[in-house]
C-alpha cells in the first residue's frame, strides 16, 4: 500500500471519528450508548448511499473511490472545501495540474512586483513554501533571508525549526497549525515531489510540535488572515496577510503583509524605516 493510499484511508477514518453523531441526520436512538467517538462505518455508508463493505475497504486502503462516491463521502463527512479538494487529490481523481514550467522555482517577473509593493512587506513562495524573492521590508520584519543557507529559505522550516524565530509568532500554536494544514494540502496536490516529501520528513522528525499537528490531518489553504508577531526591537504588532496566485505561475504565491491597526502601523514603520535605501528585491539563489 502506497503512502498516499494509506493517507486516504487514515484521512477518512479521522474525519469520521471527529463527527458528533448529533450533528448529522441520524435517528436519536443511534446517538446514545457509544463506546467510541464519531460516526460508525455503517452510518457513514448510510449517509453516503454506499455499502458498509465499501466504506470498510476504502478505510483499509483496498479500494480507490470514484469521483461520484468521493462527493458522497465528502458530504456525509461534512468536509470543508479544502478537505474535499485534499480528498480528491489523495484519490487521484482531480484533473491533473499542468507541470510547472521551466524556471518555476525562480520568482521571475514577480521579483519586480515584490519591490513595487514596498513599503509593505512582501515575498514570493513556491508550492514547497521555499522563499523565492522578498523585499527589504519583509527581511527587516522577519529575518535576514540573504544570510541564510538556501536550504533554510523556506517559510515552514523557519516557522518550525529556526530557533531564532520561536518567539516571533505570539500565537505559535495557531500559526503552526494553520501552516501545517496548508502544507498538507500542498503535499496532496504534488504527490510526486520528492523535495516536498523530504521537507515534510525533516519537519516531522525534527519537531515534536510538527509531528503532533501533522497527525491531526487538518487541511486548509490559507488565503488571508492575521498574524500576531513579536519583533525583537519594535515589540508586538499584528499584520493582516493576503496570498495571491499568479495565473502564469499557479504554483507560486505572492504574500503581502499590512498593518492591522494604528499601533502596528507605527511599529512596522519603525522596523522598515531604513529599507527605502535598499537596492531592490533579493531573489533566492
From TrEMBL:
<dbReference type="InterPro" id="IPR010982">
    <property type="entry name" value="Lambda_DNA-bd_dom_sf"/>
</dbReference>
<feature type="domain" description="HTH cro/C1-type">
    <location>
        <begin position="38"/>
        <end position="84"/>
    </location>
</feature>
<dbReference type="Pfam" id="PF17765">
    <property type="entry name" value="MLTR_LBD"/>
</dbReference>
<dbReference type="InterPro" id="IPR001387">
    <property type="entry name" value="Cro/C1-type_HTH"/>
</dbReference>
<protein>
    <submittedName>
        <fullName>Helix-turn-helix domain-containing protein</fullName>
    </submittedName>
</protein>
<dbReference type="Pfam" id="PF13560">
    <property type="entry name" value="HTH_31"/>
</dbReference>
<dbReference type="InterPro" id="IPR041413">
    <property type="entry name" value="MLTR_LBD"/>
</dbReference>
Amino acid at each position: 500500500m502506497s503512502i498516499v493510499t494509506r493517507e486516504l484511508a487514515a484521512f477518512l477514518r479521522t474525519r469520521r471519528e471527529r463527527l458528533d453523531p448529533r450533528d448529522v441526520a441520524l435517528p436519536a436512538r443511534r446517538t446514545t450508548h457509544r463506546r467510541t467517538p464519531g460516526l460508525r462505518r455503517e452510518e457513514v455508508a448510510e449517509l453516503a448511499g454506499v455499502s458498509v463493505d465499501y466504506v470498510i475497504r476504502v478505510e483499509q486502503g483496498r479500494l480507490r473511490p470514484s469521483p461520484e462516491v468521493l462527493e458522497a463521502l465528502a458530504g456525509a463527512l461534512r468536509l470543508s472545501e479544502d478537505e474535499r479538494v485534499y480528498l480528491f487529490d489523495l484519490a487521484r481523481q482531480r484533473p491533473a495540474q499542468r507541470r510547472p514550467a521551466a524556471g518555476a522555482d525562480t520568482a521571475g517577473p514577480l521579483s519586480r512586483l515584490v519591490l513595487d509593493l514596498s513599503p509593505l512587506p512582501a515575498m514570493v513562495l513556491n508550492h514547497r513554501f521555499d522563499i523565492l524573492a522578498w523585499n527589504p521590508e519583509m527581511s527587516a520584519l522577519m529575518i535576514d533571508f540573504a544570510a541564510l543557507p538556501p536550504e533554510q529559505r523556506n517559510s515552514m522550516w523557519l516557522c518550525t525549526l529556526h530557533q531564532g524565530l520561536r518567539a516571533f509568532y505570539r500565537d505559535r500554536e495557531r500559526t503552526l497549525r494553520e501552516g501545517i494544514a496548508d502544507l498538507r494540502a500542498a503535499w496532496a496536490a504534488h504527490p510526486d515531489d520528492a523535495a516536498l516529501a523530504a521537507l515534510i520528513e525533516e519537519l516531522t522528525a525534527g519537531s515534536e510540535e510538527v509531528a503532533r499537528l501533522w497527525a491531526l490531518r487538518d487541511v486548509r489553504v490559507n488565503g488571508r488572515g492575521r498574524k500576531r508577531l513579536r519583533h525583537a526591537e519594535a515589540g508586538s504588532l499584528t499584520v493582516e496577510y493576503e496570498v495571491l496566485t499568479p495565473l502564469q505561475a499557479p504554483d507560486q504565491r505572492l504574500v503581502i503583509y499590512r498593518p492591522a491597526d494604528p499601533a502596528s502601523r507605527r511599529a512596522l514603520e519603525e522596523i522598515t524605516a531604513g529599507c527605502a535605501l535598499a537596492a531592490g528585491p533579493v531573489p533566492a539563489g
